[in-house]
């Protein structure tokens, strides 16, 4: 049995570089540089507040597109605690989608230990309401939620509380990339130090252990070069969703790990770009 901290450390499983730290440093450098370039190229509206703190803001890319353009709302990862990552780190995703006339909205949120995971879930619920109001005002053809890693957990959590029956006509899909849907194992890892999860909160915050009150079409995606725990959790959540009567597709993308699964969204020919465009068209 692998040590749980290793099993839940995505950089440990990457085969690209010589150490986990190199993988993490490369990811930070890549996403931040690519996103800085994108901010200079794609028309956008930055720092739209949905809450009171500096991180509770949205960035809207593709403001030059038609009002009815589909919208992808992206929630970043970082184990709810990595301050080096923010909504701005992933702006680069907007570039390839903009070519296909898709708007992208990037969501920020406060981090642990300044707030708790239940508070973060509440915040992203507020961000979703703000985005849906914007989409309805613009008469968008549809809103799609996408989250990576901890962000995929936050997207799944929206469907346990925040997505209302009246939203079903505009919420068209949820893309859950390399997600965590059962937080209980994290209690026994060093990852939990800033999270401060106990058994009760971990259970309450685990979509895999809760009923989803509302659903949409779910797409669960994970890299083949990921920890077996990330693969297992995505498979099990897809099964749960199907058992609840929702559409849930599971895909394993070959030759990518937890990090370049997202980094490669900068490449027009990447299969996940094609899949996202097909889903949203």
How many angstroms does the end-to-end distance come to?
43 Å
What is the N-to-C order of secondary-structure elements (H for helix, E for strand)?
Answer: HHEEEHEHEHEHHEHEHH
| Residue fraction in strands | 15-25%
Global mean pLDDT? 95
What is the makeup of the main sheet?
8 strands, mixed
Q: Tell me, what's the shape?
A: globular
Rg from C-alpha positions? Answer: 17 Å
- Assembly type: single chain
Strand order of the largest sheet: 1-2-4-3-5-6-7-8
The tally of beta strands, per DSSP, is 8
Helix content: 25-40%
- Find the structural class using helix and strand composition: alpha/beta
Poorly predicted ranges: none
Q: Number of helical segments?
A: 10
Give a written overview of the molecule.
The structure is a single chain. Helix content is 38%, strand content 17%. It has helices spanning 4-7, 20-41, 93-98, 117-138, 150-161, 192-195, 199-204, 228-243, 260-263, 271-280, and strands at 44-49, 57-61, 71-75, 103-107, 143-148, 171-177, 217-223, 248-253. It has an eight-stranded mixed β-sheet, sandwiched between helices. The model has no long low-confidence stretch (mean pLDDT 95).
